[in-house]
Amino acid sequence: MKYKLLALDLDGTLLNEEHEISPRNLAAIHRAVEQGLLVVIATGRMFRSAIPYARELLLDLPLITYHGALIKKAGGRVLRHSPLANEQALEILRFGMEKGFHFNLFLDDSLYTAKENEFTRYYQQIASVPLTITGDLHQFLLENKKDPTKLTVINMEPQRLQDLQEMLREKYGRELFIMQPRQHFLEITAKEATKGQALDFLGKRKGIMPQEMVAIGDGHNDIDMLKFAGLGVAMANAAQKVQKAADVVAPPHTEDGVALFVEEHLLE
């Protein structure tokens, strides 16, 4: 087999619209693992939100989570953690909250927010994880003193998110990774917290070259992973910018695109 490692995004890629792994996708990944292909999840989700899918897929490799900010084994051992500096996170929280934006704060693989509202309900429809209400989120992080893994801004007005992204990139673009993986999410992580850099880290540990890797994704946070891997595969439901970064376009996630690609190109 030419390829040794397959990296899979979750939402919009492996998962269907009900945020589940379809029977066909599940069977295809199980067969790939049985034939010796190393399969790893690479997602912007929290570790605790991604681990059930890894167990369903019978995966033994570490999970790439928070876009690459946390690489952690299923058993709980952390291989790499690249958090935001507490001071920078506080600055961004203060700036964004003054402009009326809702923030999710991810710290120690737990989710914190100032209050429950339509944005928290929207997020929990996608990722069913416990939520802790802190009141003043800035004060909570100030007193906590720890470095958070990720900040997420949720807003239903794309232009407002785009404007905030441009402002944050202008100030922090050289130090932080700031992007919109989905239409209503703006996510902020450390500069080295990308899926491509995480694949590079895992590949070096496993003795696997980039040209021996396949990466499949649909979001803007997948672009550097698609470019890093020897074969980058974008889903047909991905934006044009993502598809242009890929070598191949697979059918959409609603049509078991991952399974169709794996069956045709990776299985014996």
Descriptive report:
By secondary structure, the chain is α/β, with parallel strands linked by helices. The chain has two domains: 5-81 and 193-265, HAD superfamily/HAD-like (Rossmann fold), CATH 3.40.50.1000; 86-190, 2-Layer Sandwich (Hypothetical Protein, Haloacid Dehalogenase-like Hydrolase, Chain: A, domain 2), CATH 3.30.1240.10. The chain contains eleven helices and 14 strands. The strands form three sheets. The chain has a six-stranded mixed β-sheet with strand order 8-7-6-9-11-10. It has a five-stranded parallel β-sheet with strand order 2-1-12-13-14. Strands 3-4-5 form a three-stranded antiparallel β-sheet, sandwiched between helices. A hairpin with a 5-residue loop joins β4 (70-72) and β5. α2 (23-34) packs parallel to α11 and α4 (86-98) packs antiparallel against α6 (137-144). The longest helix is centred in the middle third of the chain and has 15 residues, at 158-172. The mean pLDDT is 96.
In terms of topology, how is this protein built?
Elements (H helix, E strand, L loop, with lengths): L4 E4 L1 H5 L8 H12 L3 E4 L5 H10 L6 E3 L4 E3 L5 E4 L4 H13 L3 E6 L2 E4 L4 H9 L4 E3 L3 H8 L5 E5 L3 H15 L3 E7 L2 E6 L4 H12 L6 E5 L5 H6 L2 E5 L4 H6 L2 E3 L6 H9 L3
Parallel strand pairs: 1-2, 1-12, 7-8, 12-13, 13-14
Antiparallel strand pairs: 3-4, 4-5, 6-7, 6-9, 9-11, 10-11
Helix pairs in contact: 2-11, 4-6
